[in-house]
Amino acid sequence: MEQPLIxxxxxxxxxxxxxxxxxxxxxxxxxxxxxxxxPSGCGKTTTLRIIGGFEKPDKGRVIxxxxxxxxxxxxxxxxNTVFQKYALFTHMSIAENIAFGxxxxxxxxxxxxxxxxxxxxxxxxxxxxxxxVASLSGGQQQRIAxxxxxxxxxxxxxxxxPLGALDLKLRQDMQYELIxxxxxxxxxxxxxxxxQEEALTMSDTxxxxxxxxxxxxxxxxxxxxxxxxxxxxxxxxxxxxxxxLMIHDELVEIFGARFDCVDKxxxxxxxxxxxxxxxxxxxxKPEDGTLVGVCTHLIFKxxxxxxxxxxPDGFEWLVHSTGMCPVGQRVGxxxxxxxxxxxxxxxxxxxxAVGVNE
Length: 358
Hints:
Shape: elongated
Strand content: 25-35%
Strand order of the largest sheet: 6-7-8-3-9-10
Number of domains: 2
Largest sheet: 6 strands, mixed
Number of helices: 9
């Protein structure tokens, strides 16, 4: 099996007595796009800073290509970081900004000039060498920050919410640019964001974090379609998370109605959490539904209608559909067995934070 390029082993980090990372373990394979995703304060940026050498762990090892680099300063590591604030030097030209790291390394002038041209072409800013930083848009500044990082030929590029300051359209354009760069450069990207759409769009692997713990790690498809706990299901996309009773394998009871599902191994008559995505609910005639409710809310979202269907138990089901159901109409709710995700209920708040799913 391929050895990971980066291996974080039992990393613990506290600030002012507050534990931010608690014995975190994470492996990153070479030439992958890994996104650390989670809410503010979950530990994702601290994890990135520990990999980059800007923070030292209180405990644990940072293994890079087989060697422990926990004590190495950032400039001795084979990686570069692009921050949300791009930290470009406003008194320097674009070429001088890009060449900064190469000059420190005493690279020859022809080498530096070739690298500047190569980097600018890579980020689609040919001919910008002599421009000032102040003349650039936010998206162009972001590209220059990336160009400055890649001329140093890092094996890993760390990106800490680099698109956060951009408007929506520019952010989406830059997502595709980053995917293209990763494919062309053949280097490892580790990307920090709290934006689930960014994570789903760009990543090979998503690491969902909360309260200093990894909740789930997997491909975008696995994270979205098979969340391992309620936090992941609620954080990635929109979900209906409801209490259920696992009658036996492949049969779950929700609000007194029995739904076929495909999950096994949860035991008999055991309380569980059930996740059903809004787009996986099919609205049918009342007599054809497993549950029956009334449409109580309707919004047109362009590609679909967003509706709320309230069932007699008082639960408001969120439904996304290309078909419209008028407010006040009685409808049946049908869900394909493959679109019902069963999860264990956490036994305590601590277990909920850790994301235990036995």
